[in-house]
């Protein structure tokens, strides 16, 4: 069977992203217009600004992806778009564009859950994709969960954060350290010259019987620490490195417990926080410890991108296919 050529569109948050992907693996173009400059002065994403920027940028971003891939709409086999979850005003821009393109060209339309997209990012640009069943640790700004992946369409959440997502904890702690938005990468950069063992911040695991996690207590303890006498004089680099070490410990501990409970053939890391170097190293070491391959997507496929949306559509096939006239963006789309 020839490998399908899909256009991917992702506008669930603040990245206006488009891509052209062949066979769910080969990325012919991956375009992302980052809006950080528009949101930085507010210290976070302003939904109204995000949706307006998507509307201004998306059409050119589609043209850009097609031309970089050296292809045209009439050479595509389908269009894949993020239908949720995310910011409603942002999602509707991508969904409306994808519906219009699919309707005008008659191409099949695939509605993709943003989180499934993150999961299948691990398949991009790989000769050998992760074998099933695999365990995925999905860590983004809005979600943190462990997923048992039996097949592309049989996904089950077996553990999740009870409060903040790991990325949210990075962003909030970065703000406590007066770092610029977006906080995760800035905190990682600061921590690079810090001592991860300088301060023992709490590693909170809700209870032994579950694979759930919690990060809001950690962020609060960093806040109290920074307000304390010792904290006021502490090197910011050490605080950043110690906070990051605590997040990584909790994530790795929970993933290890899940690996103890069942034999998986691979372990997969995904989501924006997967771009974190300390987490990547610990994750690869975990794979070695359990003697299974550990998959970490390239950095450009960890944070929001449209190639992962096309990859998920290709893997999930007819399950993701929808009628272009009836697709509605859903900010709370269930997993
Ligand atoms: O997956 P993503 O791009 O968007 C969502 O779906 O949420 O994830 C964004 C999150 C943000 O919280 C950001 O701070 C975090 O990923 N992030 C990082 C790094 N790069 C992005 N966190 C820690 N270290 C990084 N290098
Ligand atoms: Zn995301």
What does this structure look like?
With 335 residues, the protein is an alpha/beta fold. The protein folds into two domains: 5-121 and 302-322, Nucleotidyltransferase, domain 5; 132-297, ATPase, nucleotide binding domain (Nucleotidyltransferase, domain 5). The protein contains twelve helices and eleven strands. The strands form two sheets. A six-stranded mixed sheet has the order 3-2-1-4-5-11, sandwiched between helices. The longest helix has 26 residues, at 236-261. The two termini are 29 Å apart. The site of 5'-O-[(R)-(carboxyoxy)(hydroxy)phosphoryl]adenosine has 19 residues, from helix 5 and helix 6.
User: Radius of gyration over alpha carbons?
Assistant: 20 Å
Please, what is the CATH homologous superfamily of the largest domain? ATPase, nucleotide binding domain
Q: Unreliable segments (pLDDT under 50, ≥5 consecutive)?
A: none
* Overall SS class: alpha/beta
| CATH level 1 name of the largest domain | Alpha Beta
Q: How much helix, percentage-wise, in residues?
A: 40-55%
**Pattern of helices and strands:** EEEHHEHEHEEEHHHHHEHEHHE
First-to-last CA distance: 29 Å
Shape: globular
Strand content: 15-25%
Give a short account of the largest sheet. Answer: 6 strands, mixed
